[in-house]
Amino acid sequence: MEKGLRELVSDFKGDVGVYVYNLTTNTVAAINADTIFPTASIVKVPILIGVFDKIHKGALSLNDTLVYDDKRAYGGAGLMQFYKDSTVTDLRTLISLMITMSDNTTSLWCQELAGGGETINALMANLGLKHTRVNSRTEGRTKDWDKYGWGQTTPKEMAFLLTKIRNRKMINAASSDEMYRVMSNSFYTDYSLSQIPPYIQTAAKQGMVNTSRSELVMVNAPTGDYVFYIGTKNNKDASWGFDNEAWQLQRKISAYLWNYFNPTSDWKPAEKFQDLVRDLRY
């Protein structure tokens, strides 16, 4: 498996890290899996964990009523930036938008509710993670923010977080189940998820800025669950079209892994399918 992955990434114009773990067979493949990559919006997974840690401790509730202030509006991905001032919402909505739509406004709000980057980073450290950190709006991490942006991680560490959630061991079983449920409704299906049958449950989070495109995915495959993280940085191709080189790589790796772990499946990702997806989106 690792040999095949190395062939796929060999011509990529940028830096790549990949970590794959099959939860049933304990199969592992790793390429630069301990290298630090920018998270972009994948930092919202540690933020999610931070919010649920507060819920578990009784400081927050999913049904907490919140009032949107248009001063919170933050551009980029998401819907809440377009809400009317003083709109009544709740924490469940913030969490859903943060993960499903990668909403930046709700993510920064959730980061605040979780106690800020400092609290989330302490939680990551307590989990034994050395490199997964929130940098934005976090005291003492200006240099890290300059280098990596909102957050940073390694392929192995981020895959560890999602594996722990899937195994119902992140905070507690109920918290893990709810986090996994919300991560199973990603809006962004053009990338790795396009290579997995639509009737197979996945949990995922994507992160993207101009020169870094990354993705975290857990696949609940018939032959056994597997998780993978694809991190990229210093990408030469900073375009935002369907055929961006990093997004092509994510689709290729996802298709390779599906076929590797499910060789007898009737559903086979193919180049023709890429054309169909492209036609639907563009």
Automatic annotation (TrEMBL):
Biological source species: Arenibacter certesii
Source domain of life: Bacteria
Family annotation (SUPFAM superfamilies): beta-lactamase/transpeptidase-like
GO MF annotation: an example: beta-lactamase activity
All copies of domain Beta-lactamase class A catalytic, residue ranges: 17-232
Reactions it catalyzes: a beta-lactam + H2O = a substituted beta-amino acid
Protein name as catalogued: Beta-lactamase class A catalytic domain-containing protein
A biological process term (GO) from this entry: beta-lactam antibiotic catabolic process
